[in-house]
Design goal:
With 295 residues, the protein is mostly beta strands. It has one helix at 84-87; strands at 5-9, 19-28, 39-42, 48-50, 56-62, 69-73, 80-83, 90-94, 113-116, 124-129, 131-138, 149-156, 165-174, 181-184, 191-194, 200-204, 217-223, 230-233, 243-245, 250-253, 263-267, 270-273, 285-287, 289-294. The strands form six sheets. Strands 11, 13, 14, 15, 17, 21 and 22 form a seven-stranded antiparallel sheet that branches. A four-stranded mixed sheet has the order 1-10-20-23, with no helix packed on it. A hairpin with a 6-residue loop joins β6 (69-73) and β7 (80-83).
């Protein structure tokens, strides 16, 4: 392993048939507004695309993929699985979720905060072909008893391939049975833009009153598969190339004791635990994400 780069490639090598255009548009079923930055993934493959600011999507792809199904996911909308051919060159109307807003109790504030997982070591780049989201788990511990509201999130990036690009930040609670990310705690479409060469960004979430659940939460980096983010192709010489998208999120070493599993990724329509803990040289690595909690 080169010290400056950790490589994670989720791909399958398949024979390429005739090329075809896969395009269409996603609109809100109620408002008819564009569904922005929805992720459209071909089931059981790493192929996919995201909608742009006008709800449109476009990609060139082998015709064989159009015979399968796609999984469509987007913040505040119900996940949808449809035949690829049913949305190709068509408009699909997405059904929004009915979000219930909890009662907000206003109390006297004392300015206290705590920084969890401060980045102290070198940040390594992680190449993420086929992965839609990468999440880091933050447990609720005695260390943060004074502060139980999400204030800020800082995300660090690799020096390599860091062009001007966009991503989306998500916050999830933890499923009590599976231990995987489950419900969105941040019900706001929050895309973030970084400039070329920018190695760190801080997102202020203090206005959204996100309380740390008893069993912890996940901060997730969601990659957007839009033309604005393209920076190249993977594996030169292969006939069925995977397009690469910025930004390249960073990983760094930590000295976690319990729980050791902090890294989770969303690929092929499902959340999965990282395999890090099974590989000795990667065991101490986790996403370079820090969290500030306040009271």
């Amino acid at each position: 392993m080169k010290k400056w780069f950790l490589l994670f490639v989720f791909m399958s090598f398949q024979l390429v048939g005739q090329q075809s255009t896969f395009k269409g548009k996603l609109l809100d079923a109620k408002t008819k507004e564009p569904v922005v930055y929805a992720n459209i993934s071909f089931i059981e493959t790493t192929k996919g695309i995201s909608t742009t600011e006008d709800g449109a999507f476009f990609m060139n792809i082998s015709e064989k993929y159009l015979e399968g199904k796609v999984h469509i996911s987007c913040l505040n909308y119900k996940d949808t699985i449809v035949n690829a051919s049913d949305i190709n060159k068509k408009t699909l109307f997405m059904i929004p979720k009915e979000n219930v807003i909890d009662e907000v109790v206003i109390s006297k504030r004392v300015d206290k905060s705590i920084l969890i997982d401060k980045i102290k070591r070198k940040v390594h780049g992680v190449h993420t072909v086929g992965m839609r989201m990468l999440a880091k788990y933050f447990p609720n511990t005695k260390k943060n008893e004074c502060c139980n509201y999400v204030s800020k999130v800082a995300i660090y990036f690799s020096k390599r391939h860091n062009k001007k690009s966009k991503f989306r930040v998500r916050v999830f609670d933890r499923d009590e049975i599976t231990g995987l990310p489950k419900n969105d705690l941040l019900n706001v479409n929050l895309p973030v833009t970084i400039s070329e060469g920018q190695l760190q960004t801080e997102i202020n979430l203090s206005n959204y009153s996100i309380e740390m659940p008893k069993n912890g939460l996940f901060i997730a980096f969601e990659k957007l598969y839009i033309p604005f983010n393209k920076y190249g192709n993977d594996i030169e010489g292969e006939s069925d190339l995977e397009t690469l998208y910025a930004p390249v999120i960073g990983f760094t070493k930590y000295n976690y004791k319990k729980p050791k599993e902090r890294t989770y990724y969303y690929v092929k329509g499902n959340w999965r635990k990282s395999e890090f803990t099974k590989i000795s040289r990667f065991r101490k690595f986790a996403p370079a994400i820090s969290l500030t909690l306040s009271n």
